[in-house]
Write a structure and sequence with these properties.
With 430 residues, the protein is an alpha/beta fold. The protein folds into 2 domains: 38-68 and 322-428, Aspartate Aminotransferase, domain 1 (Alpha-Beta Complex), CATH 3.90.1150; 73-320, Aspartate Aminotransferase, domain 2. It has helices at residues 3-10, 13-24, 61-64, 73-83, 96-108, 122-136, 162-167, 182-185, 189-199, 225-236, 258-261, 305-320, 323-342, 371-383, 408-428, and strands spanning 40-44, 47-50, 55-58, 115-119, 140-144, 176-177, 204-209, 239-243, 267-270, 281-285, 348-353, 358-362, 386-387, 389-391, 397-400. The radius of gyration is 22 Å and the shape is globular. The model has no long low-confidence stretch (mean pLDDT 96). The structure holds pyridoxal-5'-phosphate (PLP).
């Protein structure tokens, strides 16, 4: 029987939706990467309900978007209110909501970044930042192995994973330097990275990086890395572009991950959580760097007022409900809980985390990355009603980025189930 027929035979509402998509959707999306796909119907707080009414605890936060939880009442109210007033507003025409959006960004921006540009996706924000760097100075845009800045034509060339750019038929866009990855590079990780950077023959226009790599598998560099990179950029006259699209919005226990290092980049991109569930991102920058002439950039829906109003509300919740502080308060005990539960389990290369962001890196008995087992764990947990992510340079990292509003007992029970599923799978094949 074909998959389509199986779906029909299954007779569920989810199967029916999947069958309709199979008939019409072009290739290339992730829709059927998990088969059968999880068909979402509703989401609230930390919980997703599928098309057949089954509930799932989402410990992945919709790829780290749901920082304030799904369907936050303040965001929903702001969207309702704005919908009755003004939806589309071209970027050529200012509106009150746009001013409020910039002021909201200013209220959470790191000290020293005081100019803002809107964007509609993380990739778009990064493209804007890269363009600002290119128009300021000729030279290479340097990045790191394992990086991820989006999958648009303007960003995918900087992706650490070659398959992402091969899918778009594009070459690597700049020199790649090893990202300091303590588990794989040892104590001198920062030295190795900085030496590789110093050895580059190119004139450098900018260095672009995630302060903690997300798609790379929550790779946390040693604490001396960002300050040394800042000093390098200053010496080289290069811009430091930091992508906080996944690491930001309180995820690591500070509003921005760079705050742990006390480093200010020249440009910083933000997205995901700032929209509260709608398509909003932004570039934050130093005024001297954000000096583009008028009409250098636009896109029809760039300043869509519905999105901006939602973002103003979401940023207010992030800031006023102290969600970064909440991540800082809950994170260390949660990480310890995972570490204790997995201490005697074979094949755990590392359990790492920062705030409410966790990674469990899995290895086979011979040390190879255990990608297939990570996939099995994700699938089994989904069957049990818990959503987690899989990520990493070799797809062997279990990744958790729960909504920051998650109740402590729900988090603890969720982590216990994740640890039990990992232990079950790793022990089975030890
Ligand atoms: N940068 C980082 C660090 C990300 O994690 C992502 C998305 O996962 C992006 C950029 C791309 O953002 P978007 O998918 O909104 O284009």
């Amino acid at each position: 029987m074909t998959v389509q027929r199986l779906e029909k035979a299954a007779g569920s509402a989810a199967a029916e939706v999947a069958a309709r998509l199979r008939r019409l959707e072009g290739g290339g999306l992730r829709t059927f990467a998990d088969d059968p796909p999880l068909v979402w119907d509703r989401a609230e707080g930390c919980w997703i309900t599928d098309a057949d009414g089954k509930r799932y605890l989402d410990l992945y936060g919709g790829f780290a978007v749901a920082a304030i939880g799904y369907g936050h009442p303040k965001v929903v109210a702001a969207i309702r209110d704005q919908a009755g007033r003004l939806l589309h507003c071209p970027s050529a025409h200012p509106s009150r909501v746009r001013a409020e959006f910039l002021e909201a960004l200013a209220s959470i921006a790191p000290v020293g970044l005081d100019r803002f540009l809107p964007a509609m996706s993380g990739a778009m924000a990064n493209e804007i930042a890269i363009a600002l760097a290119r128009t300021r100075r000729e030279g290479a845009i340097v990045t790191f192995t394992g990086s991820y800045f989006g999958r648009s034509a303007g960003t995918v060339g900087f992706a650490g994973k070659a398959r992402y750019r091969e899918a778009l038929g594009l070459p690597a866009a700049g020199p790649f330097v090893p990202f300091p990855y303590p588990l794989r590079m040892g104590e001198r990780a920062t030295d190795f990275s900085m030496e590789a950077l110093e050895r580059l023959p190119d004139r450098i226009a900018a260095v672009i990086l995630e302060p903690i790599q997300g798609n790379g598998g929550v790779v946390i560099p040693p604490t001396d890395f960002l300050p040394r990179l800042r000093a390098f950029c200053d010496r080289a006259g290069a811009l430091m572009i930091v992508d906080e699209i996944q690491s930001g919005c309180g995820r690591t226990g500070r509003m921005w991950a760079i705050e742990h290092a006390g480093v200010t980049p020249d440009l910083m991109t933000v997205g995901k959580g700032i929209g509260g569930g709608v398509a909003v991102a932004a570039v934050m920058g130093r005024a001297q760097v954000m000096a583009w002439p008028p009409d250098s950039y636009t896109s029809t829906f760039l300043t869509n007022n519905l999105n901006l109003a939602a973002a103003v509300a979401a940023i207010g919740v992030l800031r006023d409900d102290g969600l970064a502080e909440r991540a800082a308060a809950l994170g260390p005990a949660a990480l310890q809980r995972l570490r204790s539960a997995l201490a005697a389990v074979p094949g755990i290369a590392e359990v790492r985390g920062s705030g409410l962001w966790f990674a469990i890196e899995l290895a086979e008995p011979d040390g190879r990355p255990a990608a297939a087992r990570a996939a099995v764990i994700v699938r089994k947990l989904r069957e049990q009603g818990v959503i987690i992510g899989r990520s990493g340079y070799d797809d062997n990292v279990i990744k958790l980025s729960p909504p920051l509003v998650i109740e402590q007992d729900v988090l603890e029970r969720g982590l216990d189930r994740v640890a039990a599923a990992i232990a079950g799978e790793m022990k089975e094949h030890a």
